[in-house]
């Protein structure tokens, strides 16, 4: 295999893309994820998290999750003293599977969302939010 | 905090067309005490949060939310519902202390 300049650059970009995929590491987090998924595999899917890049005040960070057709969505803030934020179950009239709320964030972290799809599979998404002043101790 | 300070508020459109997706906004004044906070004389302030929120339309579930202490004080919850007919949205907030706060709003669908 020849390492052309172009190929080397492409490999570098590939490595960068891999680091973007959220891999929850802590055992507590894994327990919260397994509690929701029952140990099922997590894929990428139509689940979207909308949150600010930078939150001035960690005591109320607006977060919106959307996953058309989802049965339920769990939001996790891994670095919080209580990493579980909420679990939303959508009923038959829930339209597009959207919920928006404000959450506490102790520090800068990746917010994780998990969604259960109608076919019983699970998808995940993560988004990084920089927190200027943490909002869990006040 | 006495329960009279805890006031739910909802914003629901007055009218919509059949099966239109409407945006519902809810807010309840509540301290959402996490149970992690220590007051100045060193005692831990006990956890006191809204632990569940539900919204039904004419008895049918729209949204059922389990809430943990990481949700902000004065929980604001915004979501969508599709409305097949005229009727009433019923919202409930369930407190750790057993209180249930309720609010309702009707919508005319044509």
Automatic annotation (TrEMBL), chain A:
A Pfam family annotated for this UniProt entry: SoxY
Protein name: Thiosulfate oxidation carrier protein SoxY
Domain Ig-like SoxY: 35-136
InterPro entries: SoxY, SoxY_sf, Sulphur_oxidation_SoxY
Superkingdom: Bacteria
From TrEMBL, chain B:
Superkingdom per UniProt: Bacteria
Listed Gene3D superfamilies: Immunoglobulins
Residue intervals of the Sulphur oxidation protein SoxZ domain: 11-105
Database matches in Pfam families: SoxZ (PF08770)
The name this protein goes by in its record: Thiosulfate oxidation carrier complex protein SoxZ
Species whose genome carries this gene: Roseinatronobacter alkalisoli
Record lineage: Bacteria, Pseudomonadati, Pseudomonadota, Alphaproteobacteria, Rhodobacterales
């Amino acid at each position: 295999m020849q390492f052309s300049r172009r190929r080397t650059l492409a490999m570098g970009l590939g490595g960068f893309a891999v680091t973007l995929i959220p891999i929850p590491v802590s055992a507590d987090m894994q327990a919260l994820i397994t509690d929701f998924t029952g140990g099922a595999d997590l894929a990428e899917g139509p689940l979207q998290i909308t949150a600010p890049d930078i939150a001035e005040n960690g005591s109320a960070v607006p977060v919106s999750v959307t996953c058309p057709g989802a049965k339920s969505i769990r939001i996790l803030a891994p670095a919080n003293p209580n990493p579980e934020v909420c679990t939303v179950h959508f009923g038959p009239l829930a339209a597009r599977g959207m919920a928006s709320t404000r959450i506490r964030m102790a520090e800068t972290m990746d917010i994780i969302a998990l969604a259960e799809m109608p076919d019983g599979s699970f998808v995940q998404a993560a988004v990084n939010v920089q927190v200027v002043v943490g909002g869990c101790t006040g | 905090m006495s329960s009279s300070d805890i006031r739910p508020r909802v914003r629901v459109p007055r009218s919509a067309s059949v099966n239109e997706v409407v945006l519902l906004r809810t807010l309840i004044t509540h301290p959402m005490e996490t149970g992690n906070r220590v007051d100045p004389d060193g005692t831990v302030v006990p956890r006191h949060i809204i632990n569940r929120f539900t919204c039904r339309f004419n008895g049918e579930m729209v949204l059922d939310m389990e809430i943990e202490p990481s949700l902000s004080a004065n929980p604001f919850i915004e979501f969508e519902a599709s409305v097949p007919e005229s009727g009433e949205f019923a919202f409930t907030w369930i407190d750790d202390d057993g209180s249930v706060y309720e609010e309702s709003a009707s919508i005319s669908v044509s």
